[in-house]
Every structure is written in C-alpha cells, then in structure tokens.
Amino acid sequence: MRRFDVIAFDADDTLWHEERKFVDAEEKIVALLSGYHSAETIRDRLHHYDVSNIKFWGYGVKSYVLSMIEAAITITEGRVSGAEIQQLVDLGRAMLAHPIETFPHVETTLANLNRTHTLMLITKGDLLDQEMKLAQSGLGEYFEHVEVVSNKQPDTYRRVLRRYKIQPERFMMIGNAMRSDIKPVVEIGGNAIYIPAGLSWAHERAELDKSHFAKLDHIGQVPAYIKQLEG
After folding, report:
1. Mean pLDDT taken over the chain
2. Are residues 129 and 28 in the same domain?
3. Top-confidence residue, 140 or 179
4. Does residue 1 sit within a domain?
5. Would residue 180 count as lying in a domain?
6. Are residues 112 and 200 both part of a single domain?
C-alpha cells in the first residue's frame, strides 16, 4: 500500500541548477561597481535589496534585476550611468536565457516514481520564467500537477493540499531549501526530504530538528528511500 498520495518536488536547485546564475551575476555586479565601493559593501547592499524587495516583487530573475538597479543607485549615490544600468538589464536578460542543466539522476528518479505515484511540482517565482524552465528541462511529462506560487509558507502548502484533497500525512515534499521546502511542510504535518544543493541562497537557510525530516545526499537516493518507507 502506498503511504504517499502525492510526491512533490521543488524545481530550482532541486531538479536543475539555478543559484549559480545568481552567484555569477553577483560577481559581475561587483566588478561593474568596483569603482564606487568595496566588494563587501556591494554584496551587502545587493543582498539587502534582494531580500527586502521580495514582498514587493516576489522571487526570480526579474525581481533580482530591479534589486540590482536599486542597489547600484544607492551604492553610487545616484551617479550610476545609463550605460551601467543597461549592463544590469542585459545581465538579467542573459540569466533568463541561460540554458537549463539538470542535476544527475533527476530524470531517472522522476521516471521511476512516476510509474507508482502521482508527482507534483511546487515552485515559487515568476510564472513565465518557471514555465519556460520546466519546458526547456523536458521534465514536464513526469508531473501530473504543477503549482507556481508566490511564496512557500505553511498556508501556501495548506491551500495546495486542500485544492487536491491531500491529507498532510500522505504528502511528501522534496527540495533543497530548508526555509521554503522543508520547514513549512513539517509544520503542517507533512513529510519532507531535504537534499542540499552545492550552492544555496543565504535567505533560504533555516534550522529545524533533524528528527522531523530526512536528509539525502542526492536525488537519486529518493526512490529507494520512498520504497523503504512504504515497504
């Protein structure tokens, strides 16, 4: 008997690389604005606006571009040139056009689980951007349901589970972000598997009692772990 009615996956930095685009972009911003301030100050200001603007513009590259521009204006005390702002816009466009690269074992894992379970994708960010990445990844066929949400808080998961008539104890969430993928699911009585990514956004880090979730080294270990739980 299946223990889980639905197994859900996060997308960015769980199925495919994403954070390294932002790390590379940050290095380019530091280089661009190095004539105005120290690298430490530039990184600090950028992080400040990146996090504080979430409540206005949400998550994703488009929000990040606006935060880059606001940080540049502040760092340069309004002296940033139009040409420099254009470079930031072009950088954001390049991030959106960056090819998708999935992690090892992703497709075999999804194909394996798809034969026995209903799979769902729950990802936060800009709708168009997330839809484009899913299409480019070629993984869409494995998911019966796709939810692009503005944030991932306990109430977000409650709404999703109510919509699909899923009991929390029969729901499994798999992701790389403790704050978004693991902690809120545990709080509502669901199950979670934490798979750390090589790079992680500082804002997504959080502490949680390790007895409340499983931690695996890579996504290829998920099918065996699910089988063990349901065995």
Report:
1. 91
2. no
3. 140
4. no
5. yes
6. yes
